[in-house]
Design a protein that fits this description.
Oligomer: homodimer
Number of helices of chain A: 11
Largest sheet of chain A: 7 strands, mixed
Number of strands of chain A: 12
Distance between the termini of chain A: 42 Å
Low-confidence stretches of chain A: none
Chain lengths: 337, 337
């Protein structure tokens, strides 16, 4: 198996990418390919004191930045490290690709270079989020701002395939993000999607209020990319607000400082349970090859986890599972006719 | 000043409503009117050991429940305690109304009985949320699932009037909830609203990502009621998940239990900073008279705070401020023509 990596995306590239790759190379039975500026990659490896033995470098001199127009990956930046990696997996020179770079560029580049699976009109950005009793996948978190109801059904199928294939959740519960639980609630999009989801070969549990998702109300949370992006970003913002607020409250006097020292293990566990770095990245579901978006602020550990996620995606054939479910849907539709 | 209260809405009615009213009656220069079943109200006062002296009771035997269709407040439940209170303020027998009952019924009842201010097509449910550096108002949090761009401009104006009038925020920063900060981001609604907001007599700071709001990125967060409801409910759900998770982590062993005891003051302060009970309720902005929706799980303190909020709403003439800003907008539009 060959996992292709963008050496340059993210806030701490290439150093943390290279360190993460070195950690992953030891652990997983996969060849890692680093796309990017060879000199910088080698310098980063030297700085980190890690070996690139067994890894490959796919040279690319250009890098697409966060400030660049995502569409420029098709034109001015068509030879950047991200584009190079996407083209490699598209051409069969790798089994999966991961990048911590611009989400927009990765979405556009994936659509254009890697292309969608047959039967999928829109790939979904699908981060894995922590809940009170495990994890759930959110689709779509921002790849498709405007959605049609049938897109949401595909998101539900793809999310279910991921949760069962990678996280071993049997018969994942799919919830439709809505402003109320009753059937008939919601806007035009969710009302129409509700009807389609009821008929799809998934375990649909109905409309779900946003409050229930972090409390463990579903395994797959389906929504359009606009709402999903707001959901994802608010989760992050709330996490940060809480962690900052707690820090301030605990530093106020010596008694609290002592108390804080005694509970530091607990606080760490708690923070870990909320940490995106533990979950790896957000897969782009619905592409011909697995593409993983690692968080922009990924450190070596987050990159290591994203590689693990890519390996599992390939090994557990998530795309095969999606295909099977799509065929079931088609079959159902034919039988109805 | 006369504040009319629904004695029966919410999980802890009428006991906590009556207790909250008794606390508020001592503090504020306002007559409180409790709408509902007189016998139950008097029994609650007796149980709580509080006096109803100086308060009035407006009898209403019927109560609209959470499970009732909101629209039934216009028909089967047109004589319920909530409807009675709304009609009283509509008829000038009170200056503001508050209820901890069904949000849907309150929205429908307010629209029908109290009616919108001239120039306002849609009233907005506008809760006050805690941020890392204070508070911000969210409009709309669910009164209008489908919105037009011009509704969002009115939400911005009303939210600004509230934040300056009640919370003393000078020149409140209005952010448009969006999936990215750049102009041109967003869905059709936000893209069109963006242009209108730029021209409105408010301090528009542009598109705002959901993560920035709890970190203090704006004073007024504007969005449609579908997205706003998801935003509000996720804030609540994340708060609960965090608080539960923390509790579990801190109870794991005796050392942590000791530590937790030492920081209990800090934890309380921290929780208080996140607590909706401290902020009062969510005003329904854009009505001819102030209507406040208290949280369904309100205790006496939350009710007390909601009364305070109603008193300030009247005293600081928030509706007058909204009118002035609406006139400015009209003036601007005329000048353009």
């Amino acid at each position: 198996m060959k996992i292709v990596m963008d050496a340059h995306g993210g806030d701490h590239a290439p150093l943390e990418i290279v360190k993460g790759a070195a950690l992953a190379a030891k652990e997983f039975d996969a060849t890692l390919v680093l796309c990017g500026r060879e000199a910088e990659i080698r310098a980063a490896a030297k700085e980190a004191g890690v070996s690139l033995d067994g890894m490959e470098i796919a040279p690319a001199e250009d890098v697409i930045g966060m400030e660049d127009d995502p569409v420029s990956i098709l034109k001015e930046h068509a030879e950047c490290s991200m584009a190079r990696g996407l083209k490699m997996v598209a051409e069969g020179q790798g089994d999966a690709f991961l990048s911590a770079g611009s989400t927009g560029a990765l979405v556009v580049g994936s659509r254009f270079f890697v292309k969608n699976m047959p039967g999928i009109k829109r790939a979904a950005l699908a981060p894995i989020l922590p809940s009170a009793c495990g994890r759930y996948i959110l689709a779509d978190a921002g790849a498709n701002v405007e959605c049609r109801p049938d897109f949401l059904v595909k998101f539900a199928i793809m999310g279910s395939a991921y949760m069962s294939g990678i996280l071993g959740v049997e018969n994942p519960r799919v919830g439709l993000l809505c402003n109320g639980t009753e059937e008939g609630k919601g806007n035009k999009l969710t009302q129409e999607a509700y009807e389609l989801l009821k008929a799809a070969p998934i375990h649909f549990v109905g409309n779900l209020e946003a409050r229930e998702a972090p409390l463990g109300g579903c395994d797959v949370l389906v929504t359009d990319g606009f709402t999903g992006n707001i959901f994802l970003k608010l989760s992050e913002g709330m996490g940060k607000m809480v962690s900052n607020g707690l820090k301030t409250a605990l530093k106020k006097n010596p008694v609290r400082l002592l108390g804080a020292a005694l509970i530091s293990g607990g606080l760490k566990e708690f923070k870990k349970s909320l940490d995106y770095k533990e979950t790896g990245g957000a897969p782009l579901l619905g592409l011909r090859c697995p593409v993983i978006k690692a968080h922009g602020s990924s450190d070596a550990k987050a990159i290591y986890n994203a590689v693990r996620q890519a390996v599992h995606f390939v090994r557990n054939d998530v795309n095969g599972r999606i295909e099977t479910m799509l065929q079931q849907t088609e079959q159902q539709e034919k039988e109805k006719e």
